[in-house]
Here is the input.
Amino acid sequence: MLREFARGLWTTFRSMFEKPVTIQYPEVKRPVRKRFKGRHVLKRYENGLEKCIGCSLCAAACPADAIFVESAENTDEARYSPGERYASTYEINMLRCIYCGYCEDACPTEAIVLGDNYELSFTDRRQAVYTKELLLEPVSDPSKTTPQQTPPGIFTRSIPVMQDDVD
Amino acid sequence: MNAALIIESAIKSILLLLVLTGGFAYVTFYERKVLARLQVRIGPNRAGPGGWLQPVADGIKLIFKEELIPENANKIIFVLAPVITVIPALVVTAVIPWGETINLFGREVALYLADINVGILYLTAITSIAVYGITLAGWSSNNKYAMLGGLRASAQMISYELALGLTFVSPIIIAGSMSVLDIVRTQAEIGLFKWILYQPLAPFIFLIASLAEVNRAPFDMPEAEQELTAGYHTEYSGMKFALFFMAEYIKMIAVSAIGATLFFGGFLGPFVDRLPWLGPIYLFIKVVILLFGMIWVRATLPRIRYDRLMAFGWKILLPLGLLNVFISATATLIFGV
Here is the structure.
């Protein structure tokens, strides 16, 4: 029995001289895994148009009922997304969201994607409701922001052509 | 006793209290740091440079916490219990000598607060009082977990006090005195090797029983989280909880100081006979090493089951303690000191 005690004590003593495994969080951040499900991001196409078409399938798929979408009509003078409709209101309540990613699966245009941001904190419950402005991916070029004025007859298809039909 | 002597004693008492309360704050920090390193972590390092202000931050936090007294608690005893626990822990170190006399401002100042001729008796008596506080805290909370924690504390204390008391007997036999200072002087006289040789089991029994005495892992049954939430201090919050915390850590310092004094030479060390001010430094180093041992054991061993704890105390430690007394008595009788 004494030998076991000695071995246990020796093991803990030895571990004193190992390098600590602690990651000093706010200064050092461990990158998240590839399939990590963090805060949602509403994606854009390369030309700056929003991918979201306001179909509300994400809201229907959401088991926590955290998503609220209201859609409006696109016109060629003020175009937000390809096709007929866009999301005029898009809100996610981050206190309700369970980060399951069903919205991502349901989205027909791959507009909503769960990103890598996990640093969500609020001082007020109202702050937990993320509006479209907060969720939308920022644009690099100010000319690519929405709404855009577009030539008529180009953006008629709301869902992009699939690259691989079998997919 | 003249006025100067009273002032000297008062200054020494205040100094001792300050060292103990300051020591309490930094033993928590020391424990958290060492425990973190033993578990391959870093430990507190945010408050102040290297985390050195962490105890201050903890203290401020506890002061501003709400003081809650349960509705059906016995209020007087509930408030009194932390005090009963902390006072013995503070006064028990009064008989521990930190050194011989030094010459300070042309005055011979003894580096000990009190050298009473029943020092060992004082130690055992005072350390036992602390358990009243714990048991009363458990009882007055009117909470079943607290009650069980308090009962366990008293049962454990009775079992381990015996073994602990028996380890005190062998130094008394060898030194032929119950004065703590005489015991240390005897160690200086006969040498530490011979001192341990005359009582080969006493340091081990003391180290184990003292862990149980201060309710530290692996003997922290009175506050076993899995069974008793927080044990006897379940209902305590704010500064009253801090007092229990303080009592536990000051008792850690106290038993380390007692152990260092009785078995590891106390303030003795190289050159201490010529430079008596080295005494407190040697005692401090020994206490720090013994505290490290306590933390090390906590990081290694899981809590043992309650019946095993009792069986270990009564069936192993107590006979070993008696054997130790027999060995040291026989050795002292045959070979002399």
